[in-house]
Amino acid sequence: MRFDIITVSPELIQSPFEHSIVKRAIDKGLAEVYFHNLRDFASNKYKKIDDYQFGGGAGMVMMIEPIDKCISKLKSERDYDEIIYMTPDAPILNQATSNTLSLKKNIIVLCGHYKGVDQRVRDLFITKEISIGDYVLSGGELGAAVLCDSIIRLIPGVLGDETSALTDSFQDNLLSPPVYTRPAEYKGTEVPEILLSGNFPKIDAWRTEKAYERTQQIKPELLDE
Known about the structure:
Strand order of the largest sheet: 2-1-6-5-7
Largest sheet: 5 strands, parallel
CATH topology of the largest domain: Alpha/beta knot
CATH class of the largest domain: Alpha Beta
Number of helices: 8
CATH architecture of the largest domain: 3-Layer(aba) Sandwich
Number of domains: 2
Distance between the termini: 30 Å
Oligomer: single chain
Strand content: 15-25%
Helix content: 25-40%
Structural class: alpha/beta
Shape: elongated
Radius of gyration: 21 Å
């Protein structure tokens, strides 16, 4: 699976892809991630990719021309399943979206910056818009890293145990149940006895019960869905 990330700050986003599970996925050839500096596609000698907004108002706007040049170059080299724009004024990323995107082959991710992009970029090029929360960051780079991480870990062969992702929170609209490891007793607190019983049907039932309890307490809206 290939990700092409368009950004004005490639140095800001590269680090999350150089460690842990995502790095192992890249090293194993299960995922490819490329960073494209939007300033390389600017047509002026100052590498300027933003300008004042028409109608006045505070904040600079990313211009359409360098974005068009970058996306057009990428599309001339291969077909893309999605061109995603990371922006706070969009539907919030959830597990279902990550599951769907993990089945794609080639994805472009455009990181917003400043006051956002010229609306014509969204109208002409973008196939999906995603936010990681109802708040504003300095740019879309951190959101893009979150999006890619949530997708890459779902690619078959990335996780050591492929069933691990299937039991993550939100996969079945439930939060994960509590988990424990050694030691079985620590400073007077003990692991629930059921988990040490070896009775796996009862363990599964306990985990399901606890998952419902946690979801009801923390995110009851998931049960409505």
